[in-house]
Amino acid sequence: MNSIEIRAIQKKDNPEVAAMIREVLIEQEAPQEGTAYADKSLDEMYEVYTNQKSAYFVLLVEGEIKGSVGIAPLEGGSAEICELQKMYFKPDIRGKGLGVRMMNTCLDFAKENNFKLCYIETLPWMKAAQKLYQGSGFEYINHRLGNTGHHSCTVWMLKNL
User: Fold this and answer.
1) CATH number of the domain that residue 146 is part of
2) What is the pLDDT of residues 23-32, one digit of tens each?
3) Which of 34, 54, 67, 70 could potentially form a cystine with 85 if both were Cys, beta carbons 3.0 to 4.6 Å apart?
4) 24 touches 88 (CB < 8 A)
5) What DSSP letter does each residue of 60-110 carry, written as one string?
6) Is the pTM of this model over 0.85?
7) φ, ψ at 64 (rounded to 5°)
């Protein structure tokens, strides 16, 4: 891994990011309904994250998109809560500390935009992701926040920023 770059998503990245996320969700045996797989926004990530107080980042290794993650105000939540969104990595890049770097890029953005809390939801069997979130200070909560539309994601976590 000689060439690693984290940068904001560009319009040209839309098809590759959408394909990568769907590929990871299939690999993780995630349901297609009630997860990011079915999000209408998945094919228009650049456009969705051009809103104020939102950002989406891609991880390029040797010029290929290997992961991505976004941060945005929590849909249907209070103005002080953001959501870490659509954090996915190809299998060959996992466990190398790049997820922490990507997440910290988003959390720094959230702090710069005066968010006080960061929310995330995930699938129960995504234990490695949950361990990553816990290691970054996320704690389990017993109820859903906001209105993400991801009814299949039944693990909810929150972090003070």
Assistant:
1) 3.40.630.30
2) 887 787 665 6
3) 70
4) yes
5) EETTEEEEEEEEEEPTTS-TTEEEEEEEEE-GGGTTSSHHHHHHHHHHHHH
6) yes
7) -105, 135
